[in-house]
Amino acid sequence: MHTDAATYQRRLRKEGTWHKPFTRSNSLRRFHHFIEKSDWVEVIHAQEESINRMCIGVIILAALYFLPPVLTILFFR
User: Fold this and answer.
1) How many angstroms separate the CA atoms of 22 and 65, rounded?
2) Considering its fold, how many domains does the chain have in total?
3) Which residue in 11, 24, 41, 67 has the fewest CB atoms around it within 10 Å?
4) Nearest-CA neighbor of 1 among 26, 30, 22, 25?
5) pLDDT grade for 49, boundaries at 50, 70 and 90
6) In this structure, are 44 and 14 located in the same domain?
């Protein structure tokens, strides 16, 4: 499956070259190969502790960001 799309020159607005942007490209094949053949799961497991700390930090920042409106709604209503 592919879709042809025309590109236009910026100044002249004339029809330029044709290309196929939505084909099953080589990058999709490379990504598929990366998922199946690489050790990305082991890399994530090796960095699990730092990823967990980062996620907890994001949760704490979100809680601090929403704390004033929540307190305003609960106590000054």
Assistant:
1) 41
2) 2
3) 11
4) 22
5) very high
6) no
> Is the same domain home to 58 and 43?
yes
3-state secondary structure 28-46: HHHHHHHHHHCCHHHHHHH
Q: Which two tokens stand for residue 61?
A: 């920042």
pTM of this prediction exceeds 0.85: no
Query: Strand 15-19 and strand 5-8: pairing?
Result: antiparallel
Polymer length in residues for the chain: 77
Torsion of CA 60, 63, 65, 71, to 10 degrees: -150
Residue owning tokens 């690489």: 38
Q: In this structure, are 31 and 48 located in the same domain?
A: no
Burial of 49 (0-12, 13-18, 19+ CB in 10 A): exposed
Average pLDDT over residues 52-75: 96
